[in-house]
Write a structure and sequence with these properties.
36% of the residues lie in helices and 21% in strands. By secondary structure, it is α/β, with parallel strands linked by helices.
Length: 472
């Protein structure tokens, strides 16, 4: 595509160079620049694209785009085109869609947002649409799935991938004869305009918790990010049982559909939901509401509900010696509480192994400590992607919320040893919850990203216990 064709419907000022040149792609990352690319020098939360213009040019960029007029043209060769546009993130979204020939217009796209439950609801919708005979893609935290088959993971474990990657992926979905795509829409992805030029047929708002307040600069900014989905979607579905979500729905110009623990868009017929936990009952009802929004009658939806199963890392169960171990992604106070409530319903001892991630969401740490101490009979605190923070300091933050509870608490900073200790101490009939990482396959410690899978460590811990028992 010629640059002139790409920008003809986009306001811009040409500072230098020609717009009559071929464009092969667009990116905001200098590491992904190829010959003939447009490099968008956008200011991000951590780094400024202006610092990487030279690297982009060395790799073959022929156009630089920015939303700031303070660019130093003296360091850019005259043959390189330089454009100033009003909003860099919106331009990336627009250009990515156009360079892929707007594949979203050929698909029915459902976007799911919420602090908790996005992955589960997305997979539930995908499972039911497949059961209805459709060809479906699910894109989110756990990766890319087409018709239930894992295709690839998403770089940097992003919940909502950048527009420059999303639109080529949607084009691939069209080429694979996919008709429906379910996307996880994170608050960060929404406020960064990653879905701005992705036509969304149905948006779903599940809940609003405290996770990511720090990253957005406060509670209201986080809520405003979630509200972006109302502006993008043709139809909205809202959790009526979440008071904040309900109030947001009432504020919007177009009235949404609602679901709750006792109904799906007003329908109160029985649903044979066989996944554990009241929160997953609600997740299943959200998925059912999506199918109703697509035009499926309630009686037909009822036929597909009984086959729903949880995705990897969501209350994923492994048992030996009468000990049940659950691996779950719960990494917020709300998520940890609903999972522990579900496990406590079985009336057994529950040992919780968890930590909190570093470099983010400090205020949730004592809250999660309090939740774990309240609902568990034993808590083992450990590391969970400490990143650049000291793991011991993170654990001290969590411990500050556990005072006043009689629950015994142990600390083992090494997550592998913490899991082994929990399984070695467990007795017949006990339940162990290993929370926080779920499907993740790595552990981020300092500058190192190391292989680590909770479920694999659980299985290895039982082998270790077996060997220990044989020796004794």
């Amino acid at each position: 595509m010629l640059l002139s064709e790409l920008i003809k419907e986009w306001p811009c000022t040409v500072l230098q160079g020609s717009i009559r040149q071929a464009i092969n792609g667009v990116t905001e990352s200098s590491t992904r620049v190829r010959k003939g690319y447009v490099f968008v020098a956008r200011k991000g939360r951590v780094q400024d694209g202006m610092q990487f213009i030279e690297e982009a040019l060395e790799k073959g960029a022929n156009t630089i785009v920015t939303d700031r007029t303070s660019i130093d043209l003296s360091r850019i060769p005259k043959e390189i085109t330089v454009l100033v546009i009003p909003d860099s993130s919106l331009f990336i979204s627009y250009a990515s869609a156009k360079l892929s020939s707007n594949p979203g217009e050929e698909l029915t796209i459902i976007a799911v947002t919420g602090t908790n439950g996005k992955t589960t609801v997305s997979h539930f919708i995908g499972q039911m649409l497949r059961a209805a005979g459709l060809r479906v893609a699910v894109i989110g935290t756990t990766g890319i799935y087409i018709n239930g088959k894992f295709i690839a993971s998403i770089e940097d474990s992003m919940t909502t991938m950048p527009a420059e990657k999303l639109h080529p992926l949607l084009r691939d979905c069209v080429d694979r004869h996919v008709t429906h795509v379910i996307l996880e829409a994170s608050s960060l992805g929404l406020c960064a305009n990653r879905l701005a030029h992705c036509p969304i047929a149905i948006g779903i708002l599940l809940n609003v918790g405290i996770d990511h307040y720090e990253e957005h600069g406060g509670k209201q900014q986080y809520i405003n990010a979630k509200k972006q989905l109302f502006l993008l979607a043709e139809k909205m579905i809202v959790n009526e049982d979440d008071l904040l979500c309900y109030e947001i729905g009432k504020e919007m110009d177009v009235s949404p559909m609602y679901f709750g623990n006792d109904h799906v868009n007003g329908e109160q017929g029985k649903l044979a939901i066989h996944v554990p936990g009241n929160h997953n009952n609600l997740n299943a009802r959200a998925a059912c509401c999506a199918l109703m929004a697509l035009g499926y009658p309630f009686y037909e939806i009822q036929q597909h509900v009984s086959a729903l199963h949880l995705p990897t890392g969501r209350m994923e169960k492994y048992s030996q010696y009468g000990i049940d171990v659950y691996v779950d992604y719960a990494h917020t106070p709300d998520a940890l509480q609903v999972v522990l409530e579900a496990l406590r319903e079985e009336g057994k001892n529950v040992c919780t192994v968890f930590g909190c991630g570093g470099d983010r969401d400090h205020e949730k740490r004592p809250q999660m400590g309090a939740v774990a101490a309240h609902y568990s009979t034993h808590v083992i605190l450990t590391s969970d992607n400490p990143r650049s923070e000291e793991p011991a300091q993170i654990i001290l933050d969590i411990l500050s919320g556990t005072s006043g509870f009689p629950t015994p608490i142990d600390v083992l900073i090494n997550r592998k040893y913490a899991i082994q200790y929990a399984i070695r101490k467990a007795q017949y009939g006990d339940i162990i919850l290993v929370a926080g990482k779920g499907h993740e396959q790595t552990q981020h410690i300092g500058e190192n990203i190391l292989p680590f899978c909770d479920m694999e460590e659980v299985k290895q811990a039982f082998i270790y216990r077996n060997l220990h028992d044989e020796k004794s």
